[in-house]
Amino acid sequence: MKFLGLCLMVLLPAVLDAQSRPRAQDLRIAFGGTPGRLNAITDVAGVEVGHTTLISGEGRLKVGQGPIRTGVTVILPRGKKSADPVFGAWFTLNGNGEMTGTTWVQESGLIEDPIAITNTHSVGVVRDAILQWKVGRPGLQPWGLPVVAETYDGGLNDINGFHVKPQHVFSALDNASGGAVREGNVGGGTGMICHQFKGGIGTASRVLTAAEGGYTVGVLVQCNYGLRQHLRIAGIAVGESMTDLLPCTSILDRAVRPHLPRCGERPPSTSNDEEVGSIIVIVATDAPLLPHQLKRIATRVSLGVGRSGGFGGNSSGDIFLAFSTANPGAATATGVSSVKMLPNAQMNALFQSTVFATEEAIVNAMLAADTMTGADGLTIFALPAARLQALVAAGKR
Q1: Does the reported pTM lie above 0.90?
Q2: Which residues contact residue 94 at a Cβ distance below 8 angstroms, ignoring those fewer than 6 apart?
Q3: Residues classed as catalytic
């Protein structure tokens, strides 16, 4: 616990500063649809989100010591006080990644546990910690198959140091809440990189019109994918214009990260980089959808990622999960349940909202994140908000 306290004390100013950064909506960058009040996944009533963020150390990588740039993010579909499962489904655009518990989600159509996102090498400890947290709480079933997803933060973070511990997961779960969601360099997104800008956690939502049912769709992403030249925002080829601010190392020794330029040097005019990294996307809605319909929602996330410049490269883990908070009590163990289902013919507005909210959540992740220097001096720059706003405005003209 002393270690956790140290990490959080180091983090606090960075978190406060990150939240002062504008979101896409503040920059008047429109992606279609009508955002909810918070423009966050928590616009879906009952959904709670929690983070534990671990930041400490600097300089050369020493496995087991740091630098540490990692964490865990949790999503509780009905909040901490409810043990009522939700209908859910998952989809993978490219499967070079992990999301535990999906075999049972596919088989049962239900999500029965909190959902978590962390780094690639911490999936096991996070999964086990969720089970420990569950069995200690009255009213929750004493077994489970938690959904835990990952993206790789081994560039900025000492990923082989295994710094995420059970108490970090407990803290994220215990402190999860509704309301505004922290974005950027927080939780599982702390050490993530998106289109070679600093990435992390982002969120957005859309509210359908009354004629469309008035339902809400909320999206949360952990963004860690993509090359700069492919980045498109609101239809504008932003990555083709922002060719500077590429990853570099602050350590002058050429033996350290030999394939990266030293910070302050001009980067090479051509790049041999390949599409790497991953993105995890969680979609929540209050629309009354059954599991087969939620699978249709989860597949539409791919279109939002594609509109942003992702294409599911061979080494990318692009895994998406959708759930509905409608139909409470449908998973009762006895008797016959009556459930409501939106007709398939009325799902187009939900599809569109999923695409728009995914696209905006990715941009919000980058806008909220601050420049970060991590292991071996690797420096990943923040997406410059003013330049982005000017580029989008010029593109519209």
Answers
A1: yes
A2: 312, 313, 314, 316, 317, 318
A3: 278, 316, 318
